[in-house]
Amino acid sequence: MLQDEGGVAVVSGASSGFGERIAQVLSRQGYSVVALARRADRLKALAEQDPRGAILPVAVDVRDRKSLERALGELPPDFRDISVLINNAGLSRGLSPVQSGSADCWREMIDTNISGLLNLSGLLLPQLVSRRSGHVVNIGSIAASYPYLGGNVYSATKAFVHQLSLNMRVDLHGTGVRVTCVSPGMAKTEFAEVRYDGDVERANALYEGIEPLTADDVAEAVSWCLAQPTRVNVNMIELMPSDQHFGLGFAGSRSSRSGGADAA
Ligand code: 8X3
Known about the structure:
CATH topology: Rossmann fold
Strand content: 15-25%
CATH architecture: 3-Layer(aba) Sandwich
Structural class: alpha/beta
CATH class: Alpha Beta
Largest sheet: 7 strands, parallel
Mean pLDDT: 92
Bound molecules: 2-hydroxyethylsulfonic acid
Number of strands: 7
Strand order of the largest sheet: 3-2-1-4-5-6-7
Number of domains: 1
């Protein structure tokens, strides 16, 4: 049996990068997509450019559980029968070693990568369970599995996502709801810019001489997981650029681009 394509998918962090591309690919796959993010203008453009007109922009912050609950409660009828949840919203702030890290950066990563994911999952899982079918895809990171200098709190939040995905799978066993964790390595999105607090030059330097993953690579992996017959649960997919080995190690002249102790 195939997953009920043509259903409704919720994608968090849909205003850019992986989330934006996942929303587009899922629309192409036949889903109606509820696109969540903070930046209303970016979501509006995403919805307007969708060839099927199947993307609903919902400007909300996943960290704010009350607003999220309100926004989901106000979805128009065509977008209410949600069968797919893509927990993509997440970010990294800084690459300082833990001994000189910023508590504000830590808090922002924990609030978004952990609490935001829990808020959205907590609000939507009962619905998926009651319809006895569905699929949750959590976007993890290779940083969860392979330590690198300055990764510390970001990596730990993603390790939470990996472990929660396994536990969700156990808790949801028998409900008809599948759970997958897609774990990408370095990709060319706004991720590095955010990590370096808007320093575009520094972010671009990270990609010099290597070919990073694209948002499309990740979106296609998500789409493939969803499209498997319902008897198949893809537990985890890890993908890296061919140029990356583990952590922030790269083929080529420089063995590591972790940023080290000088990193913001
Ligand atoms: C981010 C992937 O390789 O930049 O989730 O740490 S990496």
